[in-house]
Specification:
mainly alpha; 73% helix
């Protein structure tokens, strides 16, 4: 049974909005706009953590950590990497039209598949409740869209944004599967990837200096 302190309608609204920000972050061709879409998604994740927090006060700490890492540091790293250069994304492996169709199909198929088969993924009483079914379906969809971005984008910065989407999908599934456990907040804070993002963007800066581009396909030209 869902605790009465939990605002289920708010949670579902925030969760479903994650889908919009995910598609925008993946498909927008201006890197600044993609970074803004990620920033909006980070704010939604913080809002979701705060919505769950009445049943687990430790989530307030995770929300505070996510505010610093997801909302402040990661977007700052992204905007800093984009600043002063042409922010148009390098031409991806798949063109905009086909890519938008694939992203829409991924969103619909993963959401419907997970929502309809949630008993196999989370065979618990809590996992069968409406708001948690929705959250797990959204989490798998955000993860799939992030993986799609990592696999099909040549621009290294867009690849990093895809990695951030992967992380958000994992975190949403974590808080949805075990919102009442104190360990949930601990695991969530421990798996923030802000340091990884910083290191990746630092390496990307070196690649840009060496090749004048953030094209990941150029990395094959590197030699010892």
């Amino acid at each position: 049974m869902i605790p009465g302190a939990m605002h289920t309608s708010l949670i579902e609204t925030l969760s479903l909005t994650l889908l919009i920000t995910s598609v925008a972050a993946v498909e927008m061709r201006r890197l600044k706009f993609s970074a803004v879409a990620y920033l909006c998604q980070a704010l939604l994740i913080v809002g979701l953590l705060l919505s769950f927090a009445p049943v687990n006060r430790a989530l307030y700490w995770w929300a505070a950590t996510a505010l610093v890492t997801k909302v402040i540091l990661t977007p700052w790293f992204l905007f800093r990497s984009i600043r002063g250069v042409d922010d148009r994304e390098l031409k991806p492996v798949i063109g905009f039209g086909p890519s938008a169709i694939i992203a829409a199909l991924l969103m619909l198929s993963f959401f419907r598949l997970t929502h309809g088969r949630v008993a196999l993924l989370a065979p618990t009483e809590l996992g069968q409740l409406g708001v948690f079914r929705t959250n797990l379906a959204v989490a798998s969809t955000v993860f799939a869209l992030g993986l799609y971005a990592v696999l099909t984008r040549r621009d290294a910065i867009k690849t990093v944004i895809g990695l951030c989407l992967l992380e958000n999908g994992v975190h949403l599934s974590l808080v949805s599967l075990a919102p009442g456990l104190p360990e949930t907040a601990l695991f969530g804070m421990a798996t923030e990837v802000v340091v990884t993002v910083f290191l990746l963007l630092y390496v990307i800066g070196g690649v840009r200096q060496a090749f004048g581009s953030t094209d990941t396909f150029r990395l094959r030209e590197l030699r010892w």
